[in-house]
Design goal:
The protein contains 6 helices and 3 strands. With 137 residues, it is of the alpha+beta class. The N terminus is likely disordered.
């Protein structure tokens, strides 16, 4: 008999699709954070039921790669950019060098690139399950 909680958990591509459907637009960083949180919750459920088989969290790079491949398959498309700002004292903030108008400026922020579903992405189902197979055949 299958464990009841194993049916709830989605594949990475399916999670990305459902997350963007719920939020309309999202960045790879947002998707990564939400997917990592859902894996953490799933692992907590599994541990409560005595299951030793836990899921590993994806790296940001793997989610970014998924998003890039889904964009190549025309399932996702760029939806704009938003500036990100970090507090100057935040140790996680990265300093970005900006060379606009010949001036050297260091800013504490970056650009968040948003993605949204395309009409093809809303209709397609198989490519979300295995985007590598759909792209490279």
């Amino acid at each position: 008999m299958p464990r009841p909680w194993t049916q709830r958990f989605k594949r990475t591509g399916d999670f990305i699709k459902h997350y963007i459907e719920e939020h309309r637009t999202a960045s790879a960083a947002e998707i990564h954070q939400a997917y990592s949180d859902s894996i953490r919750e799933e692992n907590t459920r599994r541990q409560q039921h005595g299951d030793r088989q836990l899921l590993t969290k994806p790296t940001y790079h793997s989610i970014h790669t998924y998003c890039r491949i889904l964009t190549k398959l025309e399932l996702l498309e760029p939806a704009g950019e938003e500036p990100m700002q970090f507090p100057r004292g935040d140790p996680a903030a990265l300093a970005f060098i900006d060379l606009t108008a010949g001036e050297l400026r260091v800013t504490h922020g970056g650009i968040r690139r948003l993605l949204r579903l395309t009409p093809k992405g809303q209709a397609e189902t198989e490519a979300w399950h295995n985007p590598w197979r759909a792209l490279y055949g």
